Amino acid sequence: MIQIEKLRKIYRARGREVTAVDGVDLTVPEGEIFGVLGRSGAGKSTLLRCVNLLERPDAGRVVIDGRDLLALDGAALRRARQGIGMIHQHFGLLGSRTVAGNVAFPLEVMGVPRAERSARVAELLDLVGLTEHARAYPAQISGGQKQRVGIARALAGRPKVLLSDEATSALDPETTASILELLRDLNRRLGLTVLLITHEMDVVKRICDSAAVMREGRFTESGPVTELLARPGSELARGLFPLPPVVPRDGSTVIEVTFVGGATDQPFVSALARKYSLDVNILGGAVETIGGQRVGRLQLELPGDPLANAAQLAFLRDSGLAVEIKTPAPAPTPASEPTAASASAEEDVR
Asked: Where is this region: Disordered (predicted)?
């Protein structure tokens, strides 16, 4: 449904160039919710605006529902954009219009007849639970209700694709949960393909089927959420399941074990201890439901070094678990007096 290839966007100002999106590839299958996670300045918002050509990329392809948007212009591009809805972080509602008037606005722009427009607005307000607020103005409703108006407005043209630009970052946790639940419900009921950007791990955990981590305009990892969680060294796994930093003691091995689905119900720790007569120390762990599946991570300490524990590690992997050995951080090198060259380089960085 969404196919992005080698997307690149460069901003130029005062003789400088800043590459906001640097050769990104992205595929979102029909009916999936895909989250792009990253800090401010990572390029997430620019990427999203390139999808509907609010920002025109410098290179690459943007294919939505089989149509290359960069090959379209004029009326053809406007028609293609009608199939793409967008939810904004700060709602973007018209203060002089009622809730119903805000939802009706894109339908007016499209030239939808009044009777059809009224029926569609009523349908959408019912869909997002705002029927009783149809005559209210934005100043009279809560932040969560404003975002529901924004969602209803984004759905006015019956889009197949919904883009969400930090839709919950201005909301409190309880309201965020209700908006995410609404988005997941709309995704399932309407078959919407959703591409959302966020800096909140909880958003990915609650509703995303797949995700990518973005840094400095590039994806550092991408794929189905459950696969990323089981991937050794995954940034997403560390973010969703933060475990305390541990330095392995002499004569021991510290491992992080990730388990998904049916493996969460297996007593693999006790099975390991019995099979190899080991004293297994549980240092930390968590189990969550993500993407409809139970996913967990445990930090375990085993006696002996990794080589001596090879059979035990193989036992865990053969049980369908992802195992990552935690190695000690390298010892810091002794401080030394800076040379003239290093002092000059340091001054250049400053």
From this structure: 326-350
